[in-house]
Amino acid sequence: MSNSDRTGRPRVVVIGGGFGGVRAAKALGHADVDVTLVDRTNHHLFQPLLYQVATGILSPGLIAPALRRVVKKERNIRTLLAEVVDIDVHGKVVHAATPSADQLDLPYDYLVVAGGATHAYFGHPEWAEHAPGMKSIEDARMLRSQILGAYELAELATDEKEREAYLTFVVVGAGPTGVEITGQLAELAQYVLPKEYRSIDTRQAKIILLDAAPSVLPPFAPKLQRYTQRQLEKMGVEVRLNTAATDMDSEAITVKGPRGEERIIARTKIWAAGVQASPLAAVLAKATGTETDRAGRLAVDPDCSLPGAEGVYAIGDMVTTVDRLPGVAQVAMQQGTYVGKQIANRVKGDHTTPAPFKYFDKGSMATIGARQAVADAMGFKVTGWVAYLLWCYVHIMFLIGWGNRLGTLYNWVRSLRYARNRGHRLISMTGAQEIAERHEAA
Amino acid sequence: MSNSDRTGRPRVVVIGGGFGGVRAAKALGHADVDVTLVDRTNHHLFQPLLYQVATGILSPGLIAPALRRVVKKERNIRTLLAEVVDIDVHGKVVHAATPSADQLDLPYDYLVVAGGATHAYFGHPEWAEHAPGMKSIEDARMLRSQILGAYELAELATDEKEREAYLTFVVVGAGPTGVEITGQLAELAQYVLPKEYRSIDTRQAKIILLDAAPSVLPPFAPKLQRYTQRQLEKMGVEVRLNTAATDMDSEAITVKGPRGEERIIARTKIWAAGVQASPLAAVLAKATGTETDRAGRLAVDPDCSLPGAEGVYAIGDMVTTVDRLPGVAQVAMQQGTYVGKQIANRVKGDHTTPAPFKYFDKGSMATIGARQAVADAMGFKVTGWVAYLLWCYVHIMFLIGWGNRLGTLYNWVRSLRYARNRGHRLISMTGAQEIAERHEAA
């Protein structure tokens, strides 16, 4: 199967429908090119809110609109559901596989690779089955089943030790994602679930957040780090710093910290620590004779182009630049727009060397739970509910589509403390069984 | 594992958290009894709106609130996530299996069995894999992946015949569920998807609704049947009556009707025809030495009690009564309340023979799509948007919780024709692959 030459116009292939890929494609929406946007899912995922799907606040659809709807108005963009398996940078063809396992060849004049990143388990890939992370809607749904399933199993448990094992939750990694999911775990245990159970007191659940670093939220200002830790502790979270995971099995996690090594019996472990670039980074590195870094990322030129591969750009979490930008949505989005505009200019005949990509840091923020947040932006350091409102505003506005914005806002109101509800708490028996099987295996 | 005697009060076990089970449990919320509500899912499912999950209008959470939240205020009801495997009506014990495969024994003084129904394929269980039905959230999600996945695969197809096969949808069964999902398939093809695809014209999709009966919506008034058929045909649906499915494979469905036998090439087949009572009906029939009917239903006495099993009641889709009530939510709900009250009376010492259960028929309604519906209630026969508004009102009010009511209303507004959106369109690669594999297998 081959990409028929639709119009004779330059062909741009964009791999990945995340923050970077969508911005790149949209920046080409009015250019005289044919754009093909390829993704292995049918949706554009707003990853920063995945933890709210995992804890029942949001329904998956609100943060994952159909990709082809996102680019519906750009008539020169077509969207294809397929998984890229190889990139031939010399022949200028992307090889993909369709869901029906047909081969799909996509010749390009320009290529934008925005493959993102997955979890990294620091050389312990076997931990993945014990401590799932959150990168896809499926991950978040499974995590939701495991978290809520743990309470169901605790309610059924007849043995006190077993009950405690189900009611202990360990989050590894105290960056924004780790802090945010920990805060929601505490809200579930303290405010949402207590009155729904008869045999257990969900407020007795033990929630532990650990990080090898000496503070939570490493990239934030020390004042905000201290505030965050204090708030989490007020919510009953045990924050363990300078503490690393050293081993893990279905039953427990072994950690090493200031108190020495300790085995914590906990059925639910959540991974929010390392990330690893998409395997496409390695594919491109091999094709151009370069190497990826420790996190599997590809080095690109200051204009995000890939040395040794004509017309190829790589952006987002899968690349590193000389200025070592953080792996956040803002960087990918700005790089996407930058690369899209650059291609549009080149198609128009402008072949001057573009100004290097420059990241405009709009700041960082994280919610803590119980309507608290921290924001570190433009020199201001804000905490409490002011930061929380700021966080809400920014995240709502970055969602795509007013329908999703209003729907998300609505669910946030529903989750407020007086309502004490989480509207989206479906669990699959499989998820509950997975938690249970860990127990069986142990 | 055994059910510890919590208070010494009479123990009521309710099996099934559907319409019947929840009503029965709630009717006992103020009685001097300990109620145990057992379900193999953690949610109370509002089945009449499942087709809206399958077609992307509603998120699953809106029609499936957590069961234990539904009975949160009734402090004498505990909810357990487990699957009932056997019922010992002589020893008065329910045997269940927890997600961790532990055995759970629930002794009872009174038992309410409300196990519902599943699909029936008229002696062709092998059709289940080709023509999925809708009874659970998982069913609806999988169907959504298959319906939207079919369009994705049509967009990728290079062969015209293959494309047509993906763009042909056959719904078997023209009762309310069949009519409602057919209407939504037509809306997707005609109004929602056209502008999102580049290689296919989704308006060319062929949508066929077939039924062995001579009219659509068999239980409705002839005037409403004719109106419904006309509206569906206006939306491009091919309605084939007096037509039955005779064979099915991954590639096609064979039907027999007035035009003789015909093999229709269609990748997506949806089953909305027969239902089969929960296997618990057979368990109870065997235990009491009776037999189930052709649809696997159990015969109960006029007071919904089971002859030959002391203290056991069975209600809803899994039973038949002398007055042959339809298998609808209203019947199950009314029977649930009736049985709950009866048990409450008996516990208070009132052992007089209760008045037989009497069904109060509030009428039937069905949406057709494009803001059209039919309603046949209290002697009134209403069509068009008036019926549609009535339908909306009734269905919103029967949802549990204001949060879900408002959320559902919001998604209905989003799905209106001017917005032409469906907010919840996530598909899993597995769903798309399942459709594709049918093609491979063929």
TrEMBL record, chains A, B:
<dbReference type="InterPro" id="IPR036188">
    <property type="entry name" value="FAD/NAD-bd_sf"/>
</dbReference>
<dbReference type="InterPro" id="IPR023753">
    <property type="entry name" value="FAD/NAD-binding_dom"/>
</dbReference>
<dbReference type="InterPro" id="IPR045024">
    <property type="entry name" value="NDH-2"/>
</dbReference>
<keyword id="KW-0285">Flavoprotein</keyword>
<keyword id="KW-0809">Transit peptide</keyword>
<feature type="domain" description="FAD/NAD(P)-binding">
    <location>
        <begin position="11"/>
        <end position="336"/>
    </location>
</feature>
<comment type="similarity">
    <text>Belongs to the NADH dehydrogenase family.</text>
</comment>
<feature type="domain" description="External alternative NADH-ubiquinone oxidoreductase-like C-terminal">
    <location>
        <begin position="362"/>
        <end position="418"/>
    </location>
</feature>
<feature type="transmembrane region" description="Helical">
    <location>
        <begin position="385"/>
        <end position="403"/>
    </location>
</feature>
<keyword id="KW-0520">NAD</keyword>
<dbReference type="Pfam" id="PF22366">
    <property type="entry name" value="NDH2_C"/>
</dbReference>
<protein>
    <recommendedName>
        <fullName>NADH:ubiquinone reductase (non-electrogenic)</fullName>
        <ecNumber>1.6.5.9</ecNumber>
    </recommendedName>
</protein>
<keyword id="KW-0560">Oxidoreductase</keyword>
<keyword id="KW-1133">Transmembrane helix</keyword>
<keyword id="KW-0472">Membrane</keyword>
<keyword id="KW-0812">Transmembrane</keyword>
<dbReference type="InterPro" id="IPR054585">
    <property type="entry name" value="NDH2-like_C"/>
</dbReference>
<dbReference type="Pfam" id="PF07992">
    <property type="entry name" value="Pyr_redox_2"/>
</dbReference>
<keyword id="KW-0274">FAD</keyword>
